[in-house]
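### Sample
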Amino acid sequence: MWLKPEEVLLKNALKLWVTQKSSCYFILQRRRGHGEGGGRLTGRLVGALDAVLDSNARVAPFRILLQVPGSQVYSPIACGELLSGSDVYWAIATGATLEEINQHWDWLEQNLLHTLSVFDNKDDIASFVKGKVKALIAEETSSRLAEQEEEPEKFREALVKFEARFNFPEAEKLVTYYSCCCWKGRVPRQGWLYLSINHLCFYSFFLGKELKLVVPWVDIQKLERTSNVFLTDTIRITTQNKERDFSMFLNLDEVFKIMEQLADVTLRRLLDNEVFDLDPDLQEPSQITKRDLEARAQNEFFRAFFRLPRQERLHAVVDCSLWTPFSRCHTVGRMFASDRYVCFASKEDGCCNVILPLREVVSIEKMEDTSLLPNPIIISIRSKMAFQFIELKDRESLVEGLLVRLKQVHANRPVHYDTSQDEDMTSPVFHSTSMCSDHKFGDLEMVSSQNSEESDKEKSPRLHPEALISVFQQAGSQSPDSRMHFHLQSREQIKISLWNDHFVEYGRTVCMFRTEKIRKLVAMGIPESLRGKLWLLFSDAVTDLASHPGYYGNLVEESMGKCCLVTEEIERDLHRSLPEHPAFQNETGIAALRRVLTAYAHRNPKIGYCQSMNILTSVLLLYAKEEEAFWLLVAVCERMLPDYFNHRVIGAQVDQSVFEELIKEHLPELAEHMNDLSALASISLSWFLTLFLSIMPLESAVSVVDCFFYDGIKAIFQLGLAVLEANAQGLCSSKDDGQALMVLSRFLDHVKNEDSPGPPIGSHHAFFADDQEPYPGTDIADLIRDSYEKFGDQSVEQIEHLRCKHRIRVLQGHEDTTKQNVLRVVIPEVSILPEDLEELYDLFKAQSLHVSHREHMMSCYWEQPRPMAPRHDPSRPYAEQYRIDARQFAHLFQLVSPWTCGAHTEILAERTFRLLDDNMDHLIEFKAFVSCLDVMYNGEMNEKIKLLYRLHIPPALTENDRDSQSPLKNPLLSTSRPLVFGKSNGDATDYQKQLKQMIKDLAKEKDKTEKELPKMSQREFIQFCKTLYSMFHEDPEENDLYQAIATVTTLLLQIGEVGQRSSSSGSCSQECGEELQASALFPEQDSVFADASPGRTTQDSQTFPEEAEGDWTVSLEHILASLLTEQSLVNFFEKPLDIKSKLENAKINQYSLKTLEMSRQSQPELKLGNL
């Protein structure tokens, strides 16, 4: 183990150690007397000395030294022999066995050996190695503590450092931390990597230099393991602009899996809302721990491996052995116990798998523990088979948990057993008993009791009672060549006989032993009479069918007759579904297809209806009864092809990306020739969405579906690779994507099924006319066999890992597409530079996502979660996908707006938000935000004043405005003093004529099509002035601006009073109102503009008593005209503003603003939660 570096002095110790390995920096040594066969006298003496020493004083037999060339100091890193000329070293690690010390040596070679060459200073090498080893010791200690204690002291210390160093809000939970190096060019920076629920953070303080790095998970576009010149294995984080490498982890595999899980969880929670609601593991991000992530990864593997429902939760995974009667021995593997299943998977891939739904289980019993059968249990199922498991650790608690869940399953779904027949465990009877029917798989067909049939007819009389192919194949069953027809029927009977033999030996229910033998039978092609029933078994749709009696009939009753967008899409596609097959040239087949698709859309409105579902459902109806076809569709859409049939078909795109990587791995020559593999991916998308049904003849494609139901998506991946390999030469010689498409389409159109007993069905997707030259056909059985032999080595675990890796890239690709589409719409309408708009979009998106996460965590403190409007909705148009609320807008306003008004900024931001919120849903979009910001930065003076004006009238300014209690809300300031504009030289200038003409011009030039803004009241005008005063604070021309705005304010106050008096007099008609206002503003002997005495002003005030006056108002034209009279104000509003510096500061300060907001908002809510 690694030891804390400690200086040790040993003299004449060279003869006690023997060098085993050496390099330019490290030496591995063995202590004499250990590992020697005969041994010399020295070795025997050393061995005897070690043997008589107390156990606490004994020396470990192996160690490693650090050798710095040219230095007189050597450091043992994991125990061995001192070099000549030195008797001082640091003990850093010990090894009790050669295997242990070799692990340390290998780690040093892979992570440190090449790195040390970049240091010029020898002391730096020693410091770096010692620091690294200390960090490894700390990490080992924390790992051991974490296993023993929920919140170990070391983790608490790391949490304190994390909070102090990065200043995140308290809700930003630290998940785990690791010691590692972050590479900056060719130089590694030793430090600590902190992984929290939303961020990847790195901190280093090395050689007097501090480095802080914060990368939000949502910004990561690629997460991969790679290597560079110095290190064989590193973790590379790729964001939009940078790549960062992290290395020298004690356990890189563990770190990468945790990082992959965190990135996947965060991206799916924030960006993939359609799936987020379906995954309960993502619902509580604030509660995520390292153990939770590891459990989640194991859960996802379990569900993917056995293709079980997403809601299935794993409770236990134990090593055990299962008695396999076909091999007459116990097979080593693992048992997986979940909510409603007990599953087994052999350690040897494909050797034996078993799925036991608890609803099929009759009893779970412990047997007597013997030396031959240690810790055995017997699980008996309803088809009178029993499964014996042995070598189960902690058997008592395992059985107790299984019995509790078994009782719960039977309580939720009561089971009635058929005891009328006494059949042994090899009887060809398939029990799938439910409350209202007893289905048996006997004599190769599903038989229902008469009572059950009558009950079903009463409940759903319109449902088609049998598979369509059994009704509609007779029309085309007469073959012109009777010999060929007889030959095909004979081959079909042989297949049936093989399957019957297999059922006898391996079982015929959903609980059958699934081995390599059954995979070979599936690859040969399932007999048509068994196809639908085996699809039900392989997909476990039979369990759903038996567990939900009457469910489908009720759905049909509820959904039929309703008209909506989904039903219109379904109706449009009904007659495009296998139009070449006679079953869908008839209203019977069309009606059954309509009912299944409509019922599923009603069951799962998140998916509703997607194109390609019609083709898949048509084939399911051919081989299965209507209700069975419905549950097969459920299994495909919700379990076997997750995320395929939703708004953005994320799952299909992820698998296309995985397929590209598999092409590079298995067909490198083709990948090298096809520079852009995305072209192949676009061609192959239909392969995955329709399981080859839309591009192969039907009789061939159903064999692909056979393999899919048994092996899942792996079968489609390997068949796709086999198709590409078969056409590699043609693809390499193709000149463009169109020619490549023709090559693949022609090949797939000529894939034949020589064993199909029915007549060939014409392909509506054929690209080629019959009169072209003959094309050699390929038998589907040969193609499937090649796919298994050449590309069948991909495991479920590898595919799930690739899916997780590529899901990040696909989701970020969607985000980039959204961003580019939004910018393309916004750029022509604003004057902000495109690169600045990109940064603004990133800030806006970050705030929007932060809102969603923050509100979720805040709602955790309330007894009942508060309703939240969706901030990110991928189903909306691009420009409306991200939206922010008032609080988040205030943060963005403070970060990027040029109109900062000190304490008044937040109030101005609230008014701006109310102005932009046209539809009153309390959310605004990016386009509205940027348009407002563009006026502030690039608008002309009149546009800026107009915006400010609108911010101080309704709806922006409300009666309940936070600043409404200002003392200025009361009667206005006195306007008794005369208005005189003073120049710096002391001369006075009368602006009466100039103002009069300006108001007339503005009135004439007003755009008649534009709605006239309402006039501003006393209270609104005072708020307007207050905002202007706040905006001038800390401006270099602050004093001049204050003097100018005081002058303009006085002028406008007097204009408002004159207008008030004229309004109350009512002596002029509307036609002459404008002229009257101008004459009222500027009478030749008006005391407002003359050198009037206070007495005269008082006289005027008495002439217009307050109670007789009308409403005090000023218009936008008045304000603009008055502001134009002061050059300092004109300069302020027309000076160029730099948005780039604001954006740079915003990127730095956005986290601190979030921290302040979180702390401010969380405290009162916490108090409320504790009441």
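The first helix runs from residue 41 to 52. This sample (TBC1 domain family member 8) is used throughout the tutorial notebook.
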